[in-house]
Amino acid sequence: MLHSNATQNPRVLTIADSFSDGSAGVQADLKTFAALSTSAMSVITALAIRKTSNENTIHTIPIDFISSQFHTLVNDIGVDALKIGMFHSSSLINCIVSFITKTKIPIVVFDPAIIITQLPVDSLDILRNELLPFVTLITATLEETSILLGRNIVSLSDMKCAAQDLHRLGPKYVLIKGDHIIPSSSKQIQDEKDINDVVEDVLFDGVNFTVFKSQRLPMKTEYSIRCVLSATIIALLAHGIDITRTIQDAITYTHSIGQNSSNFDCTHDVLKHTLSMCLDQTSNESLKPTTNSELAVDDKQHQAVSKDHNDIVHIQSYGYIQVPRMISQQRSFIQLLKNECTQEWFDYTHHRFVEDMGNGTLPHTSFKHYLIQDYIFLTNFARCNALAAYKSSTMKEILHAANIVCHIGRESELHISYCAEWGIDPESVSSIREARPNLAYTRFTLDCGMSGDLLDLYVALSACLLGYGEIGTRLFEDPKTKQDSPYWKWISNYAAEHYQVACREGADLIERLVIDYGVWYSTVRIKKLIDIFKTATELEIGFWAMGLNVEW
After folding, report:
1. Rounded to two decimals, what is the model's pTM?
2. Is residue 298 a part of any domain in this protein?
3. Domain CATH code at residue 130
4. What does the pLDDT look like over 353-373, one tens digit per residue?
5. Is the CB of residue 61 less than 8 Å from the CB of residue 122?
6. Residue 489 in domain
7. What is the Cα–Cα distance from 514 to 536, expressed in whole angstroms?
8. What is the number of helices (H) and of strands (E) in the chain?
């Protein structure tokens, strides 16, 4: 059970070892979480003593006690995002798989420290087959990727192929950390020193690759740095930041910590976690390089980023602004809404109707009934956006709503043609009565607009907009989805870039209205919007059930 968290920082949990010197594991994660404005929690799986000889003494925690830690946190506090670290046994892996399948935590990042633990082959099989399908992002080093896939990786091209193969095992996103990879041939290498100084990390989102290039940090800090990087990633994702910007900013932040800790006269990799990047408090702009006149600390180096036309992000040394926090207090409102109805959102986006479309087993009668009712829904969706134009107070907002109405009009014409492909004639589409679940949903959205303001209306409509985008993308990227099924066209349409752009624009509009209306300062208003979003999500579940069971 995930408890309400409307006015607090996102709740982030790490499951890992405890290193008594604070250099890695739970301690490193918690310090990073705290620095990035999250509510930090931990489940300790083992107690580790790290010696100056780089040998570790480890005392494992009984599985029952690990389970008790987890369930207490989930039931009493709630969890928005989960980071998983070291595994010592197959029983621990099975235990954690049970955790995430039962609780359906929306964001799960897996940092597979399998080299240190030297997992046996059977444990690796469990990782691949049982855990990875439930992971949002895996952050594997080059060597770990080689072990998971059973082959050597020696080039950037190999990294991209490996990322695709890991993605097929289930994770939504894959990040392969370059370690000692020789840079791609497109970079002019002057000497061996240049090769050793450059790191290339590869992100694969199921469709596109992004390569992040940065300077290598001192080897002494490597293990601790990996903990900070993955902890930073989960914290940023919990704040609702998109995946590419998350990786970019996490590398930037991690490198600033590594550079400012490298002068420690210490054998252990104990890092400073008190540095924060300067992110805009009211917009979605990424970290930007500062000019010399803006430097708060001019004797340190930070990382700024640029992206070229080949989707390679270059991270270069600049001065940085040192500020108290990295994350704006105005975190993603969309992510908050999803976090407040985690179970409902999962039931909606993973409904049997949806899953049967993916595997091609959905009865044709169910899909035809859905298509006709969806046309009626589109008509009312257009009415809602026409109402949004009336509710708008600026010409820009009015034109935005009007453009959506025109887009829905064009989409409805395509919908008629699509129905014809399924043997449904236009007269049937326009003459069939509105089913009760459809009636309940559309009148709810219209009522939100009539009785509330523009934000109430857009939040009521957002469950449909964002949910379909998420469903389309997930099914499109899932290797188990049947591309030769009659539902592939529907899936491709909602995974297409034009629809994903509409999703991003709709989400950005809500985030802006939340700030403009001062929502973050009103717990009453936040609760109202959560209730609207949750009800809309429940009505979406009912809409799928209506189609599946041919309900009237």
Report:
1. 0.57
2. no
3. 3.40.1190.20
4. 999 989 889 899 898 888 888
5. no
6. yes
7. 18
8. 21, 11
